[in-house]
């Protein structure tokens, strides 16, 4: 009699929010959270976090480094709704108010191994020039009421955004029992830098 | 039945002469395929890039198919449109690419094209905007009746799609 196979597989993700490239902004901090489908549940680790405030380095690199750890484990019965990490970056404007500088999201990679991802960050745009002026003046920029919207496809067709920076993330992924359940995740592609490359003139 | 998960993003587009782009996308499959979860079509946000010339959408795609056969492997078809400051939309390109057939993460670059009209229509498009569009969207991903078209190249759409296959080895399929 064959033993009953597993019905649940585990996904363990650790890594860091490494650094950011925002040519026009300084003194930024980031918040991350995970968005996942109904069949997923976190079993260990932290689902959300807020990093420190970082300033650009004085040298020619102008690097914004957070080095902020990520460590979470999920269990699931179905790969649909694979977890995505949603990042929101905030910084001060001219008057000292905290305004959003970018939102971005990416799926956690599913082949085991080490992965580097550079994701673009975008902000919603004001509808008219007058609204852009008043929001700059009052310090209340357009932002999403729930940053998790960035991880969904529905409802985005009416939004206009401006992309203005990049954030680099590093992931180490370990899965358990996916192969026993019949899933084939393909060859592990370790140490592959992926995602859009920043345009010339910006440090990688 | 074998199952296929397509998990990834439409990252963005480069090489278009217009900025402020958005993309309408859809997935077309054969008769043996059934969509179990996920949305089969959608539209991305409109992005105006401040840094560089790539418009970034980061639009997530998460599809779960069950299939009884290999024919009609899913195809992703795209329409890239540009929106000007008055809110008018103009077609920038059509394109399609097959969803990859081997498991793992893939970077895809999908080239696009747009229909050219007569010289009058091309002149009007340069001054006033507009331009010819396809009546039936299936000419984008099927080869029939393409010989009637005269087109010009648009830019490239960049996608990162990951593929997760289940039970394909049970049926002896190698991929």
Protein described:
Chain A has a single domain, classed as C2 domain (Immunoglobulin-like, Sandwich), CATH 2.60.40. Helix content of chain A is 5%, strand content 47%. Chain A contains one helix and eleven strands; from the N terminus they run ββββββββαβββ. Chain A has one helix at 129-138; strands at residues 9-21, 29-35, 40-45, 48-50, 64-76, 84-92, 98-107, 113-124, 160-176, 183-184, 192-194. In chain A, the strands form two sheets. Chain A has a six-stranded mixed beta sheet with strand order 3-5-1-9-8-11, with no helix packed on it. Chain A has a four-stranded antiparallel beta sheet with strand order 4-2-6-7, with no helix packed on it. In chain A, a hairpin with a 5-residue loop joins strand 6 and strand 7. In chain A, 34% of the residues are buried. With 175 residues, chain B is mostly beta strands. Chain B has a single domain (2-171), classed as Immunoglobulin-like. In chain B, 5% of the residues lie in helices and 53% in strands. Chain B has a five-stranded antiparallel beta sheet with strand order 3-6-1-10-9, with no helix packed on it. The longest helix of chain B has 9 residues, at 119-127. Chain B is globular and about 60 Å long. At the A-B interface, strand 7, strand 8, strand 9 and strand 10 of A face strand 1, strand 5, strand 6, strand 9 and strand 10 of B. Chain A: Residues 181-204 are annotated as: Disordered. Chain A: InterPro entries: C2_B9-type_dom. Chain A: Belongs to the B9D family. Chain A: This is B9 domain-containing protein 1.
């Amino acid at each position: 009699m064959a033993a009953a196979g597993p019905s649940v597989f585990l996904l363990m993700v650790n890594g860091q929010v490494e650094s950011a490239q925002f040519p026009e902004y300084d003194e930024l901090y980031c918040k991350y959270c995970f968005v996942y489908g109904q069949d997923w549940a976190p079993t260990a680790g932290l689902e959300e976090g807020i990093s420190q405030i970082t300033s650009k380095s004085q040298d020619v690199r102008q690097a914004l480094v957070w080095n902020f750890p990520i460590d979470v484990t999920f269990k699931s019965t179905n790969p649909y709704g694979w977890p995505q990490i949603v990042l929101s970056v905030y910084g001060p404007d001219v008057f000292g108010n905290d305004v959003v500088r970018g939102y971005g999201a990416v799926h956690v990679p599913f082949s085991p191994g080490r992965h580097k991802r550079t994701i673009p960050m975008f902000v919603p745009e004001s509808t008219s020039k007058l609204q852009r002026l008043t929001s700059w003046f009052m310090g209340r920029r357009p932002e999403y009421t729930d940053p998790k919207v960035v991880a969904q496809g529905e409802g985005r067709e009416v939004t206009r955004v401006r992309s203005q920076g990049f954030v680099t993330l590093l992931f180490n992924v370990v899965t358990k029992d996916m192969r026993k359940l019949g899933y084939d995740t393909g060859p592990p592609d370790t140490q592959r830098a992926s995602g859009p490359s920043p345009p010339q003139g910006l440090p990688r | 039945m074998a199952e296929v998960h397509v998990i990834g993003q439409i990252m963005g587009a480069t090489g278009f002469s217009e900025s402020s782009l958005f993309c309408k996308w859809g997935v077309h499959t054969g008769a043996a395929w059934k969509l179990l979860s996920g949305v089969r079509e959608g539209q991305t946000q409109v992005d105006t890039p401040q840094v560089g010339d790539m418009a970034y959408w980061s639009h997530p795609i998460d599809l779960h198919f069950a299939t009884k056969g290999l024919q009609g492997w899913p195809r992703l078809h795209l329409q890239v449109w540009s929106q000007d400051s008055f809110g008018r939309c103009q077609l920038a390109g059509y394109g399609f690419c097959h969803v990859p057939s081997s498991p793992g993460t893939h970077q895809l670059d999908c080239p696009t094209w747009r229909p050219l009209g007569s010289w009058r229509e091309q002149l009007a498009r340069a001054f006033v905007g507009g331009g010819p569009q396809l009546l039936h969207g299936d000419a984008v991903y099927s080869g029939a009746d393409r010989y009637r078209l005269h087109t010009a190249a648009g830019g490239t759409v960049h996608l990162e799609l990951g593929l997760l296959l289940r039970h394909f080895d049970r049926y002896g399929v190698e991929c």
